[in-house]
Write a structure and sequence with these properties.
Largest sheet: 6 strands, antiparallel
Number of strands: 31
Shape: globular
Helix content: under 10%
Low-confidence stretches: none
Length: 467
């Protein structure tokens, strides 16, 4: 058993008309019984889809996590049936296509009275209520468990409503349980993934190399092709769950990563922080509002605080031992070429933590105020940001080793000085101006004498509207 289906037989095949790898096919349309097939053929057939029109797929699946969810995604009718079950006295909910709240997912909430609400979550906030698009077909309570059956169109009513894709064989989701009747702070939360299989005998890909789970948490490297990223071209180990060595995906909250099979020791540490904030009173003649923009070597916006089709789901990779470049056999070079517009979100609201609204950019584009490197010791050498259209090197940063006691030069510490721009009167160079259709390229260099997992290469920047 796979937990969501009963397996009758494990078979092998060498069939070019099927997708390569592991497949699962339903034995009987009226029964949840399947055969698993390993197809060893080299095949160009894609995993998703039936024939030439995957939009007509009819997929079904069930997953029991904190909330039990069943989906019936029917491309023939254009409808999806969503069945949710959770504790009857309290609210419970599911957020689609997400692994955490700051993905800002479309979410369905069922409260302790059985009322159903659709929301777009904020960054660790309840977010906003959306226009209703679901129809409540049935609601029932048995044994303290409330079950609601909902239907709606596959295509989202608005951009904030999730669109169900009949070609997608799995959907990441977050789910939570409350301790109150109405939506409030959750008492339990979790991340899971629902597998969707064909309702007929059409094979479904079962094990894709680039997706899976680690400790029950969905893993999706989402490696982008060139020119957005070199990682897929170079077969970086982070691009497949089967070759992933380690990094952030092993370090979720309450996860212990140990060097042996052992009971985690009790450990309590008290940490105290002191913050000092220095500020000037706002002067419209001298100050501008600035916003956060960001880009990763993974080929995506790694700091998206709002909706962005170029937002990241994975922001790390490996420095591979012996991966050389024109700078030498032990210097790995990685590049990402991308549009400036990819760093901005399609919309922003006050609940988003880091967001620059693309819709507010005028003909003058944006101007950079600060650009800082985010990379990891001990093998980060240098990072560059280049305007491909103008040939301008916008910024180069190199970490330096401290040699003294003064601020930013403390012995034993590393510091990567950022690039900053401003007014000539204050001794700064003028800010670089970027049109939304400008083509940028970031390049980063790493010492590859030793293998180093969980490396990053990110430009974390501040910019203002140049309107």
């Amino acid at each position: 058993s796979l937990g969501f289906a009963t397996i009758r037989a494990n078979l092998t095949a060498n069939n070019v008309s099927l997708a390569a790898g592991c497949l699962i096919t339903r034995v009987n349309p009226n029964a949840n019984v399947y055969n698993v097939i390993f197809n060893s053929a080299t095949s160009s057939v894609q995993c998703q889809g039936t024939g030439s029109d995957p939009s007509k797929n009819h997929l079904i699946g069930t997953k029991s996590d904190l909330v039990k969810m069943s989906l019936d995604v029917n491309g023939l009718t254009g409808q999806v049936q969503i069945t949710l079950s959770g504790p009857a006295p309290y609210w419970f909910g599911v957020g689609f296509n997400a692994t955490e709240m700051n993905n800002l997912p479309y979410t369905i909430i069922v409260d302790g009275n059985g009322n159903v609400q659709e929301r777009k979550l904020g960054d660790h906030t309840a977010g906003a209520v959306l226009q209703a698009s679901v129809k409540v077909v049935n609601t029932s309570v048995a044994g303290g468990i409330r079950t609601v059956v909902l239907t709606r169109a596959l295509t989202g009513l608005t951009a904030d409503h999730y669109t169900f894709n009949p070609a997608a064989s799995a959907i990441n989701f977050i789910n939570a349980l409350g301790a109150t009747v109405e939506l409030a702070q959750h008492k339990q939360r979790g991340t899971s993934l629902i597998e969707l299989l064909h309702s007929d005998s059409t094979p479904t890909c079962l094990c894709l190399d680039n997706s899976g789970t680690i400790g029950g948490i969905p893993y999706d490297a989402d490696c982008k092709p060139e020119p957005l990223s070199d990682l897929l071209r170079d077969n970086n180990p982070t691009c497949e769950v089967s070759t992933y060595v380690g990094g952030l995906a092993c370090c979720f909250n309450h996860v212990f990563l140990l060097d042996a099979d052992q009971t985690p020791p009790d450990y309590v540490s008290s940490v105290f922080y002191r913050f000092r904030f220095y500020y000037e009173d706002y002067d419209p003649a001298a100050h501008q509002v600035i916003h956060h923009v960001e880009w990763s070597l993974n080929g995506c916006d790694s700091g998206a605080g709002g909706p962005n089709p170029m937002g990241c789901r994975h922001i790390e990779f490996d420095t591979v031992k012996g991966a050389g470049s024109h700078l030498g056999p032990d210097v790995q070079m990685l590049q990402s070429t991308f549009p400036a517009s990819g760093m901005l979100e399609s919309t922003c609201d006050p609940s988003y933590g880091q967001c620059m609204d693309r819709s507010k950019v005028g003909p003058g584009g944006i101007k950079l105020v600060m650009a800082a490197t985010h990379c990891h010791a001990p093998n980060c050498i240098r990072q560059e940001l280049f305007n491909v259209d103008t040939g301008e090197m916008i910024c180069v940063t190199m970490p330096i080793h401290g040699t003294g006691e003064e601020v930013y030069n403390e012995r034993g510490y590393l510091f990567a000085p950022p690039c900053t721009w401003g007014s000539a009167a204050e001794g700064f160079l003028s800010p670089p101006i970027l049109a939304m259709n400008a083509t940028l390229r970031m390049t980063a260099y790493y010492n590859s004498t030793y293998f180093h997992p969980g490396q990053m290469g990110i430009w974390q920047m501040k910019a203002a509207y140049n309107n």
